[in-house]
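debug: dumping io for the single-chain case to check the tokenizer round-trip. Nothing else runs in this session.
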Amino acid sequence: MSSPSQTDRKVTLGSYVALAFAVVFFSGLLQSNEWYGVFDFTTLNGAFGSVAGTVTETADGIQVASTTLRGQGGSGARDGFIFALTLIPTVMFALGMINVLEHYGALDAARRLLTPLLRPLMGIPGNSGLALIASLQSTDAGAAMTRQLKDEGHLTQRETDVFTMFQFTAGAAIVNFFSSGAVLFTLTMMDGSLAVTSSIGLAVAVMFIFKFVGANLFRIYLNITEGKDNEKQNNVKKETAQEAA
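debug: decoded output
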């Protein structure tokens, strides 16, 4: 007896629990060095240590200069190769977690809950919701999960293209904004007043809105180009039919 297809699987309470865990795990809400950081993707993914550089001796003692695993001053294909190696743990970990969560029904619950929201917003199915959430924290994880959804037939080529545009418009928006951009909101003028008058919440909202705007602009572009392609195909068919007649 064949197993039921993914679309026929029953969504149970456990599926919703798995989905809730996935949202928290990939969203970065628990990113911390505290004990609850073990439930966060970025925290568990960790970081490479530093490679010791040159050792210089000063009057105060010995100072050891350090650099990252990639080193400094790299260029060309060699530096690109080392950079690619640093992405492998993130991608493997993300794919492993999504397979575990899929086993417990998280993607089925996401499809049922998020399809009514994501279909009108971007024309993509709800089971891409976990990849969407992951992409806000890690471009590598989002890209890997999207590729897996495409390979398993959850996303069509058109849906993959639109979803990719959403992801890489302000890629890893949450992590990059709060690690780099949010510092701008602490700047003050000479008189002590804030240099940036808008709020952090407004800045995040603008990023999210324009991620959706970018995805839908690409949908419009695809509609235009696909329409031209269909028209060309119809013209070719007509010419072929006329020649055959």
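debug: round-trip ok. The chain has nine helices and two strands.
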